Amino acid sequence: MKKRLAAGFLAMLLLIGIAPFAPAESGLEITGASLNEDGSVTVSWKDSGNHGPYWVNYRYSPEEDADFDAWFWRETDTAVSQKSAALDMMVPGESYWIRVEDSAGNDDWYYFRPQRMQYRGLKQMRTRIIPRRQWAGKGETLDYYSASAIEAARRNNSNAYGASIKVNYTDAPSRVLYDLRVAVFLPGGEPVVLHTESATLAAGAGENYSYWSFFDMAWLWDILLERFGSIPLGTYRIGLYLNNGYAGFQDVVMKK
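-> structure tokens emitted (256 positions)
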């Protein structure tokens, strides 16, 4: 089993006021993007000037209108020498602006809007997501999150706030390789992938599951505090994805 954490896999850029625009006649052109079965996205481009290497970054946008106030940009952690890249930290089924830039400073933009799907690869599947607080080996279930309590906990490095997440699978028809993603939708609707995990479920294995008794969301709280100085209030949606479809959601209100 391999696991990838969002903070280590992708750099987080906090850029403001950048909007797509028509590319110059540089020969760099994004030719398409596709949502793969494992939930990743492949973007391809052509460049008659061959000005590699290339950098790929992307941000969520629910509409093609470039004025959407996205909070986060993401970028690949290394330059890409070939003319394609696999983007592993998008939320399957959500829409993004993708930008490719070459070493000469030319860039091109592409609006990617895939179909949103429910995961149906396993007939018997149960998903449970429960907000939780944890401290000193103890924990409790929460009806809502408290922004002031989370902010104090991050300052004091004391209580942790997150969720217990469990998805059970039964009666697997054949050997199943799947990618699992945990994402949080912020109050403005923007999704942020916190974790991805690849695993194999063998046929005839009975009931199997992916389970976190406590999934710590400290990375997200720290990013929000760095960006805004406080935790935004509103409704957060914790989403669980298997391959290219969603498996379950839980809405949690963030109060003062």
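Confidence is low (pLDDT under 50) at residues 1-19.
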